[in-house]
């Protein structure tokens, strides 16, 4: 054994002796000193790196951008230190072997000594390279990508990291955590926007989870965004359907916002972690990525257990400089002035770098005086009230300051009213209007329309103050969950709020005594207390529960001050429309001003007449058993909503008893639909309603309209004569004729229609005989359709032209007057017009020079005598804004555009530059789309050209035209 070791050492010495001797022995002679020098140099370099890191941290805290050369230097330093430590570790091993009486390994000592000298030189050089004058640059100006989101340097880096992960094939779960108010929801909305804009996925879905997890609600949100409908009603069955649907999407991003605890993805129906993700190199594998936001990192950790392809990102508060920038953007640059700068910086520090605090405080303090800024600083420095639980102190104090600075009591009341709804709820502004009227919230307003305008103005101001958000549905707003928590705290002395928290039983009656508002909506309560004493209660919201028993009289007696009562969607498990009779106990609610009972089956007792203070009664989408004569006692009623109601048994002759409508002398708004059998007597009673401004009704026949009847003061209406009012567009007028046109326009009963034309936005005329042209046919007021946006004409067998200039006879008195008729028309829909030949007979009248110029969409369907849509350049030039054109089943059509131009057109205007969609279907005679000089045509915005069953069409467009439009796109 000893002989083998000696031979090995001699062999190594032999290898060493092969190389030149001189310099090589120096490595052995200076071995120890080299090691000591290297150790010292590493310690010095580590200290230099710490100093640079400190400068980097300080610059980052100020929101400045670290220079690339600094980042590269720090990366190089880390590499050099790592290599030097490896040499020193090998030296320690050599010494240990020598200490244990091993023979000296000269070759290893030579190698280590040589490497140490090289590393000493490298450490000296990199130390010199680290002498930076500045490690950073001033941060780039914040990037404003939307009204709600501002990108600073800190968020820019986080966005880059997330987008890189979404674009790659490795990461499929990204968790984002951060404290309340740091901007997680706004942040992921920007991620959603970018993912859609960059078309990274076939579908991008964002849903809100919230503190109380409602699996069905989450499933429905995903299904709605995918345009998918469930067949199953049970959670488990819906989960299977959703799982199958999501498995069919090749690439999908699901954003789960506001998770509070571990979320069971399988229970919802979200496929994740299955075989589709196991082979990222497989180009055919499906891509499903999840982004989740939460306040707690543990929630992310629990969801990523066992998942290696995940990334967790901490969303930090803004730096000092970023905070000041955001505050300045919202409070105004005046805070940089000598007068305000010092106190404004105090306020900024108190906001703790939280965007929600900085924005709300900044907007609240805009245009405020020095004294008000100083007061705000003091308020923010005060300790938080002790009764606040679950709300960050900084967030609470900043949002409370914004609330305190709201301009009037109405805005404060509206803000607090919004906290009565569940988390992430789409709050309908119209519902707030009706609650507000009941609570007498709107001061100095005379009409419901004024109250509605006031409510929209208030909610807009609250959105501008970042105390409310835009809702996901038209006419709705939402409340950020953090803001809602603060609002609930502010209102904790007056409102008891347990909305959407899966409450199974009615709260203890003793705890509710002093509240003026109680919200237990959307729970699973199945009964009432036997009695209670809530003498101060003004608003009770209990919609969306499963209470089948009637409310006891003792409960009614205990809330005689009640002004607003919403008992909508009170359903039984077996029948969503189970019978709910208005209990006799309602007679005790003599102070009630707003009663809402949607989606119920209702029988009203005679006691309903005792609620004489009632101003708003909403029975939308109810099955009505009857309405007694006593309903006429509601003489203060101002709004009656019976939209989408129907009878639960055989239709009655009339929903209202005789001589009831005329007693509602204060009625301003009446919403009804087809179930209401309006008789001639009913409509005659409407004439006595001098305050009526809003009317939705269907008239079954012309004979039901009394002679001389009109609604000159109507502001909002949907009226259909022999038609249907089921249309979203307001100021909708439909007349289905089945009569001779001359009789229609001369009919005495139609005096109610003509005054409405000047406010009509959607006009639908169908089934008239003898109607050869629309304008100026029997229309004395040529400005009568000034606000019309949509015109729909169908089944008028004699109609030849929309406008007949030859019949347009100008009274000499107004010869120079420019008419506003059809100035705002955007959509024209012409269907089944067997005699229709064209838009205009002859040159367009001079007085209509402003008409038709905003038209964006045109549709021609079964206009069998139409030979050309645009037969002249003069007519086509009017339709500069046209975006969509559809021509279908027009048998005689030969050309869509037929422009006969004999002389050159100077200052030629390029045609159809906004056209996006062109659909030409079933046109057997069409020979050419464009018959005219191609130099006039520009189709660079055309996205869809759907050409079907046009047998004679050989060429779509001239080749030179297509090349020119391709060049236009490249130039643009």
Automatic annotation (TrEMBL):
Domain of life: Eukaryota
Gene3D superfamilies for this protein: Helical domain of apoptotic protease-activating factors, P-loop containing nucleotide triphosphate hydrolases, Ribonuclease Inhibitor, Winged helix-like DNA-binding domain superfamily/Winged helix DNA-binding domain
SUPFAM superfamilies listed in its UniProt record: L domain-like (SSF52058), P-loop containing nucleoside triphosphate hydrolases (SSF52540)
Entry keyword annotation includes Lyase: no
Signal peptide per UniProt: none
InterPro entries found in the cross-reference section: AAA+_ATPase, Apaf_helical, At4g27190-like_LRR, LRR_dom_sf, NB-ARC, P-loop_NTPase, Plant_NBS-LRR, WH-like_DNA-bd_sf
Coiled coil: 28-55
Annotated PANTHER family: NB-ARC DOMAIN-CONTAINING PROTEIN, NB-ARC DOMAIN-CONTAINING PROTEIN-RELATED
Family designation: Belongs to the disease resistance NB-LRR family.
Protein name, as recorded: Disease resistance protein At4g27190-like
Species of provenance: Populus euphratica (Euphrates poplar)
Gene: LOC105130606
């Amino acid at each position: 054994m000893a002989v083998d070791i000696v031979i090995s050492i001699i062999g190594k010495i032999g290898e060493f002796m092969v190389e030149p001797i001189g310099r090589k022995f120096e490595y052995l002679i200076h071995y120890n000193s080299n090691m000591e020098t290297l150790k010292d140099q590493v310690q010095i370099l580590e200290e230099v790196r710490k100093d640079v890191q400190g400068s980097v941290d300080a610059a980052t805290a100020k929101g400045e951008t670290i220079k690339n050369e600094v980042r590269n230097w720090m990366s190089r330093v880390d590499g050099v230190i790592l290599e030097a430590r490896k040499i020193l570790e090998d030296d320690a091993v050599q010494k240990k072997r020598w200490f244990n009486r091993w023979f000296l390994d000269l070759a290893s000592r030579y190698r280590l000594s040589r490497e140490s000298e090289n590393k000493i030189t490298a450490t000296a050089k990199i130390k010199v390279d680290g002498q930076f004058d500045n490690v950073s640059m001033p941060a780039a100006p914040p990037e404003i990508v939307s009204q709600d989101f501002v990108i600073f340097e800190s968020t820019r880096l986080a966005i880059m990291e997330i987008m890189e992960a979404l674009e790659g094939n490795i990461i499929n779960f990204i968790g984002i955590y951060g404290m309340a108010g740091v901007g997680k929801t706004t942040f992921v909305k920007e991620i959603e926007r970018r993912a859609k804009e960059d078309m990274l996925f076939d579908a991008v879905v964002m849903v809100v989870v919230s503190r109380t997890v409602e699996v069905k609600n989450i499933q429905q949100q995903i299904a709605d965004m995918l345009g998918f409908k469930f067949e199953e009603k049970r959670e488990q069955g819906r989960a299977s359907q959703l799982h199958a649907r999501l498995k069919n999407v090749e690439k999908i991003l699901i954003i789960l916002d506001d998770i509070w605890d571990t979320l069971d993805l399988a229970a919802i129906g979200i496929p994740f972690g299955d075989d589709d993700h196991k082979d990222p190199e497989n180009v055919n594998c499906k891509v499903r990525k999840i982004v989740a936001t939460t306040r707690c990192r543990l929630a992310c950790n629990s969801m990523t257990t066992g998942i290696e392809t995940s990334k967790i990102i901490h969303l930090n508060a803004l730096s000092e400089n970023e905070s000041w920038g955001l505050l300045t953007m919202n409070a105004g640059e005046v805070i940089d002035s000598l007068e305000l700068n010092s106190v404004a910086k105090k306020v900024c520090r108190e906001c703790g770098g939280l965007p929600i605090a900085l924005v709300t405080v900044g907007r609240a303090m805009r245009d405020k005086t020095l004294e008000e800024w100083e007061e705000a600083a003091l308020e923010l420095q005060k300790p938080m009230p002790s009764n606040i639980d679950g709300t960050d102190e900084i967030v609470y104090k900043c949002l409370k300051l914004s609330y305190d600075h709201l301009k009037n009591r109405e805005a404060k009341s509206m803000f607090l009213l919004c906290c009565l709804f569940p988390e992430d709820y789409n709050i309908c502004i119209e519902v707030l209007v009706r609650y507000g009227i009941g609570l007498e919230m709107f001061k100095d307003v005379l009409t419901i329309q004024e109250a509605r305008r006031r409510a929209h103005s208030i909610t807009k101001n609250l959105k501008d103050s970042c105390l409310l958000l835009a809702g996901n549905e038209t006419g709705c707003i939402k409340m950020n969950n953090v803001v809602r928590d603060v609002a609930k705290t502010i209102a904790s002395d007056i409102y008891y709020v347990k909305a959407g928290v899966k409450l199974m039983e009615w709260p203890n009656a003793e705890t509710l005594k002093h509240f003026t508002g109680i919200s237990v909506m959307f729970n699973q309560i199945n009964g009432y207390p036997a009695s209670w004493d809530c003498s101060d209660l003004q608003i009770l919201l209990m919609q969306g529960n499963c209470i089948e028993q009637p409310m006891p009289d003792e409960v009614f007696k205990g809330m005689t001050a009640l002004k607003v009562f919403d008992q909508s969607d009170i359903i039984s498990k077996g029948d969503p429309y189970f019978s709910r009779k208005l209990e006799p106990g309602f007679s005790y609610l003599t102070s009630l001003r707003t009663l809402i009972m949607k989606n119920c089956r209702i029988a009203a007792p005679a006691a309903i007449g005792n609620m004489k203070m009632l101003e708003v009664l909403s029975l939308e989408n109810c099955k009505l058993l009857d309405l007694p004569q006593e309903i006429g006692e509601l003489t203060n009623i101002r709004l009656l909503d019976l939209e989408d109601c129907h009878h639960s048994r055989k239709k009655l002759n009339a929903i209202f008893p005789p001589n009831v409508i005329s007693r509602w002398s204060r009625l301003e708004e009446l919403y009804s639909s087809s179930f209401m059998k309006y008789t001639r007597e009913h409509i005659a009673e409407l004439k006595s309603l001098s305050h009526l401004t809003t009317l939705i009704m269907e008239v079954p026949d012309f004979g039901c309209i009394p002679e001389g009847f009109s609604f000159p003061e109507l502001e909002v209406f949907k009226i259909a004569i022999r038609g249907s009012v089921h249309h979203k567009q307001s100021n909708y007028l439909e007349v289905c004729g089945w009569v001779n046109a001359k009789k229609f326009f001369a009919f005495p009963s139609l005096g109610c229609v003509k005054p409405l034309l000047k406010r009509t936005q959607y006009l639908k005329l169908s089934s008239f005989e003898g109607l050869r042209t629309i304008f100026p046919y029997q229309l004395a007021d040529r400005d009568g359709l000034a606000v019309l946006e949509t015109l729909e004409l169908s089944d008028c067998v004699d109609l030849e032209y929309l406008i007949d200039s030859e019949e347009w006879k100008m009274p000499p008195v107004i010869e120079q007057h420019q008419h506003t008729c059809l100035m705002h028309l955007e959509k024209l829909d012409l269907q089944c017009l067997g005699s229709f030949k064209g838009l205009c007979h002859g040159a367009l009248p001079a007085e209509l020079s402003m008409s038709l110029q905003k038209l964006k969409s045109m549709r021609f369907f079964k206009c069998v005598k139409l030979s050309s849509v645009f037969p002249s350049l003069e007519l086509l030039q009017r339709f500069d804004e046209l975006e969509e054109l559809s021509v279908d089943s027009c048998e005689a059509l030969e050309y869509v555009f037929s422009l006969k131009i004999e002389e050159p057109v100077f200052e030629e205007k390029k045609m159809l530059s906004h056209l996006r969609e062109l659909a030409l279907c079933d046109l057997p005679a069409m020979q050419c789309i464009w018959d005219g000089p191609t130099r006039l045509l520009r189709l660079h915005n055309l996205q869809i050209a759907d050409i079907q069953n046009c047998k004679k069409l050989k060429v779509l467009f001239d080749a030179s035209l297509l090349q020119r439009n391709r060049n236009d796109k490249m130039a643009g």
